[in-house]
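User: Some background: our group keeps a shared notebook of sequences we're curious about, and every so often someone picks one and asks for a predicted structure to add to the entry. Today it's my turn. The entry only has the sequence so far, pasted here. Could you supply the structure so I can complete it?
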Amino acid sequence: MRFRLYYEGELKATQRDPRDGEINRVAQHKQTIRRAFHRQLRQLWNTNRFLREYKRNPDADIAERPAGDAGAYFDHEPDTKIPLSQYLAQRYQKFGYRFVPLVRDEISLLCSLHVLFLRRDTPGSIIQAGDIDNRIKTLIDALRAPNSPNELVGNDTNPGSDDDPFYCLLWNDNQVSRLSVETDTLLDQPTSGDADARKVRLIITVDLQPYDVTLFNLSFAGA
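Assistant: Of course. Here's the predicted structure to add to the notebook entry:
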């Protein structure tokens, strides 16, 4: 399964994760980016036939059966099942949010990311830019659900209707099996102001492939 996400705006660097009691100074910035991806991923779930139409029994175990073991897999009446997004939102709840993560440990998917990173710097200036790695960390953090309430400082922990449920690519950032970054110059007409000077445009190609095939994740190979 392959699709693309995008982001345009400022991308601040994350120097390190805050220690206990410290304020997360980029929490609100990450949540802003996380919301941008949430809207795109919600559209993916609405338009991808497999994600839109697949249903689960609300009381079923999250674990999936191996592809060769179809026994008891269809043991529930169709009218008792609910959409997959609703099923996940019931089970992935924290910090006042109901999350719908696409990549989760129990479904055994490899998640590969290729980032086309366009910014105001000149081509080949990745060494001079210096903070590319720290800005990519911000991006990866925004692609996953927050790990602690500290990551939501400055944000409403009672999400509105547009954030419920909240769609994210990853439940944990350790689910990224491969990451590559290509940098180049952003060639649109700049305007005055510091915000425009810091603007980036990111095109993120997401590739999902099953590594331990089940009846469920086999669908990602052709979705």
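Suggested note for the entry: Residues 2-15+25-65+75-221 form one domain. Helices lie at 27-47, 49-53, 84-91, 126-129, 132-143, 194-197.
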